[in-house]
Write a structure and sequence with these properties.
Elements lengths: L4 E7 L16 E2 L2 E2 H11 L4 E6 L3 H8 L5 E4 L6 H8 L8 E6 L7 H11 L4 E7 L8 E4 L6 E5 L6 H4 L3 E10 H7 L17 H7 L4 E5 L12 H21 L3 E2 L5 E9 L4 E2 L3 E9 L4 E2 L4 E7 L4 E2 L4 E7 L4 E2 L3 E3 L3 E3 L4 E4 L1 E4 L2 E2 L4 E4 L2 E3 L1 E3 L4 E2 L4 E3 L9 E3 L4 E2 L4 E3 L2 E3 L4 E2 L4 E2 L8 E2 L18
The structure holds uridine-diphosphate-N-acetylglucosamine and magnesium ion.
The site of magnesium ion has 2 residues, from loops.
């Protein structure tokens, strides 16, 4: 591979067809800006220099990607791909090679780029090409009819009718020896149909100087697809998700329907994990062995340990779930929650910033916030921790072996001590003694002779 590698990502184009105020390269693919996918990949090649050419919405792009390792180059006005690379030229050393990537071609793989760099092998000009059934809109690769070597690239708008029938296209991704790049870029002109400085015109310069122009193709056909419209972005999203789902299946994860899962980050699974339809995984999600995620769940930055089952329609974010827990259906687990092993959280229960120790259960219609719950605690239906006084949040502590009766309010700060039982329908405002029954409600009375009103 090239001894010194620089990478330039072209990302100055406007993306008019997105019909959006957001710069095109910031539109998300799998939950992350398209450009972030390209930057992450570029970094895997350990380049000496990584430059991003920005133009339209440049400040917004820079602020969003926000990465100290990047060299930002502003191209204004945008006069074509050759002009874009020319702006980055001062960043590039004299030695080694420069790899050109596009900010709006986000599915390109590491394997494909490594192959291209190897083909160029430090001295040749390498172009990633593709053979497309419908090459419409792309620059066509012109090859010598006898030697089959590349002689030029002609843009669609400049192509003759016979040239338009050529199916081999320029993906735009290329690797150029720096020594030539410094010589060729300043010589580009804009004498063409679009009056742009075409980067592709350097092919002719290479041919004139007997620099070999070599090509390679991508590992998967879809890697080279670019995004110009929301339709294309949606198509790429499906391709990305299908590919991710196939990788999960290959790793042994059981997806009930691989076309109905969305991973917007990283999903790390143990053995015999099962995932039912319509689940969304955001950020980094780790599932232990035999974890089962039932239909329509959303998990964001969550770790789930072995044997836990998440029933349908549960929403879990920034939480740590222990082993053999049962969550849902319809549970909401909010950030900074930790559930230890064998915890049960049932329907219409919201847990926020709380720790629940092993074997405890909150099974129905409850809110538990800013709370520490010990082991083997049972929280009855409709229990609310009143953690907020309108200005500040307060803690509730519930020690081991507590039983809280249904429809109870625990007004924080408050401690429910070891072994306490709270009678149903209580409003608890003071700490409770260990192992005793505490309740706060008026005595039940029956009014003798009372009559229900009737219509007059
Ligand atoms: C370019 C290629 C074409 C290739 C196609 C692949 C040239 C002259 N043509 O055409 O051969 O088949 O890509 O998709 O190179 N950009 C800038 N500054 C500019 C212009 C573009 O940064 O002044 C960036 C865009 O943001 C984009 C990339 O360069 O990431 C490609 O630009 P685009 O206008 O889409 O080029 P095409 O005309 O499609
Ligand atoms: Mg384009």
């Amino acid at each position: 591979m090239a001894s010194k590698l620089s990478i330039v990502i072209l990302a100055a184009g406007k993306g008019k067809r997105m019909r959006s105020s957001l710069p095109k390269v910031l539109h998300p693919l799998a939950g992350k800006p398209m450009l972030a996918h390209v930057v992450n990949l570029a970094k895997k090649l350990n380049p000496d220099k990584l430059c991003i050419v920005i133009g339209h919405g440049g400040e917004c792009v820079k602020d969003t990607i926000h990465d100290p390792d990047l060299n930002w180059v502003v191209q204004a006005p945008q006069l074509g791909t050759g002009h874009a690379l020319l702006q980055a030229q001062p960043c590039l050393g004299q030695e080694g090679m420069t790899l050109v990537l596009y900010g709006d071609v986000p599915l390109i793989s590491l394997e494909t780029l490594i192959r291209l760099i190897e083909v160029a092998s430090d001295k040749n000009y390498g172009i990633l090409t593709a053979v497309l059934e419908n090459p419409d809109g792309y620059g066509r690769i012109i090859r010598d009819s006898e030697t089959n070597t590349i002689k030029g690239i002609v843009e669609q708008k400049d192509a003759t009718e016979p040239q338009k029938t050529i199916n081999e296209i320029n993906t735009g991704i290329m690797v150029i020896p720096n020594a030539y790049l410094h010589e060729w870029l300043p010589r580009l002109d804009n004498n063409n149909a679009q009056q742009e400085y075409y980067l592709t015109d350097i092919v002719k310069m290479a041919v004139d100087q007997d620099v070999s122009v070599v090509s390679s193709e991508s590992v998967h056909e879809w890697e080279i697809l670019g995004v110009n419209s929301r339709q294309q972005l949606a198509q790429l999203e499906r391709i990305y998700q299908k590919d991710y789902a196939n990788k999960l299946l290959d790793e042994g994860v059981m997806l009930y329907d691989p076309s109905r899962i969305d991973v917007r980050g990283e999903l790390i699974c143990g053995t015999d994990v099962e995932i039912d339809v319509n689940c969304v995984f955001d950020g980094i999600v780790t599932l232990g062995d035999r974890v089962k995620i039932e239909a329509n769940c959303i998990l964001k930055n969550v770790t789930v340990s072995d044997g836990t089952i998440i029933h349908p329609f549960s929403h879990i974010e920034d939480a740590n779930i222990g082993a053999n827990c049962k969550i849902g259906p319809y549970s909401r687990i909010r950030p900074e929650t930790q559930l230890v092993d064998n915890v049960h959280i049932g329907n219409f229960v919201e847990i926020k910033k709380s720790r629940i120790a092993a074997g405890s259960k909150v099974n129905h219609l409850s809110y538990i916030g800013d709370t520490t719950i010990g082991q083997n605690v049972n929280i009855g239906a409709g229990t609310i921790t009143c953690n907020y006084d309108g200005a500040n949040k307060h803690q509730t502590i519930i020690e081991d072996n507590v039983f809280v009766g249904s429809d109870t309010q625990l007004v924080a700060p408050v401690k429910i001590s070891f072994g306490s039982t709270i009678g149903a329908g209580s409003t608890i405002t003071k700490d409770t003694p260990e192992n005793e029954l505490t309740l706060s409600r008026s005595k039940q009375v029956s009014i003798n002779g009372w009559k229900r009103p009737s219509k007059t």
